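Appendix B, example 12.
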Amino acid sequence: MNTSTDLIQPEVGTSREQLFRDLVGLAVQLESILIHEVVPLMKSAGHPLTGRVHSLRSEIKLCAILLGGAQ
Protein backbone atom coordinates (compact mmCIF):
# COMPACT_ATOMS: atom_id res chain seq x y z
CA MET A 1 0.00 0.00 0.00
CA ASN A 2 1.23 3.48 -0.79
CA THR A 3 1.63 6.17 1.79
CA SER A 4 1.59 9.92 1.34
CA THR A 5 5.39 9.84 1.56
CA ASP A 6 5.53 7.49 -1.43
CA LEU A 7 3.58 9.98 -3.49
CA ILE A 8 5.65 12.95 -2.39
CA GLN A 9 8.97 11.18 -2.98
CA PRO A 10 8.39 8.51 -5.61
CA GLU A 11 10.98 5.84 -6.24
CA VAL A 12 13.63 6.70 -8.78
CA GLY A 13 12.39 5.70 -12.20
CA THR A 14 8.70 5.78 -11.29
CA SER A 15 6.77 6.81 -14.35
CA ARG A 16 4.13 9.49 -14.47
CA GLU A 17 1.65 6.80 -15.48
CA GLN A 18 2.48 4.75 -12.38
CA LEU A 19 1.98 7.80 -10.19
CA PHE A 20 -1.45 8.33 -11.76
CA ARG A 21 -2.34 4.66 -11.19
CA ASP A 22 -1.25 4.98 -7.56
CA LEU A 23 -3.29 8.15 -7.15
CA VAL A 24 -6.35 6.52 -8.70
CA GLY A 25 -5.92 3.55 -6.36
CA LEU A 26 -5.87 5.86 -3.35
CA ALA A 27 -8.91 7.75 -4.65
CA VAL A 28 -10.82 4.49 -5.06
CA GLN A 29 -9.92 3.45 -1.50
CA LEU A 30 -11.04 6.83 -0.15
CA GLU A 31 -14.28 6.65 -2.11
CA SER A 32 -14.99 3.21 -0.66
CA ILE A 33 -14.34 4.37 2.91
CA LEU A 34 -16.59 7.39 2.44
CA ILE A 35 -19.52 5.47 0.96
CA HIS A 36 -19.35 2.43 3.25
CA GLU A 37 -18.34 3.98 6.55
CA VAL A 38 -18.36 7.76 6.77
CA VAL A 39 -21.60 8.66 4.97
CA PRO A 40 -23.75 6.06 6.80
CA LEU A 41 -22.40 7.22 10.18
CA MET A 42 -23.03 10.85 9.29
CA LYS A 43 -26.57 10.05 8.10
CA SER A 44 -27.41 8.17 11.29
CA ALA A 45 -26.12 11.10 13.36
CA GLY A 46 -28.06 13.60 11.26
CA HIS A 47 -24.87 15.50 10.47
CA PRO A 48 -25.52 18.61 8.34
CA LEU A 49 -22.55 17.96 6.00
CA THR A 50 -23.64 14.47 4.95
CA GLY A 51 -24.79 15.68 1.54
CA ARG A 52 -21.53 17.50 0.88
CA VAL A 53 -19.43 14.46 1.82
CA HIS A 54 -21.58 12.31 -0.49
CA SER A 55 -21.07 14.87 -3.27
CA LEU A 56 -17.30 14.86 -2.73
CA ARG A 57 -17.33 11.07 -2.89
CA SER A 58 -19.02 11.28 -6.28
CA GLU A 59 -16.45 13.82 -7.49
CA ILE A 60 -13.57 11.59 -6.36
CA LYS A 61 -15.05 8.64 -8.23
CA LEU A 62 -15.60 10.69 -11.38
CA CYS A 63 -12.01 11.96 -11.31
CA ALA A 64 -10.71 8.42 -10.88
CA ILE A 65 -12.80 7.23 -13.82
CA LEU A 66 -11.60 10.13 -15.98
CA LEU A 67 -7.98 9.30 -15.12
CA GLY A 68 -8.69 5.81 -16.39
CA GLY A 69 -8.33 3.48 -13.48
CA ALA A 70 -11.62 3.08 -11.68
CA GLN A 71 -14.90 1.38 -12.41
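The chain has one domain: 21-71. The mean pLDDT is 79.
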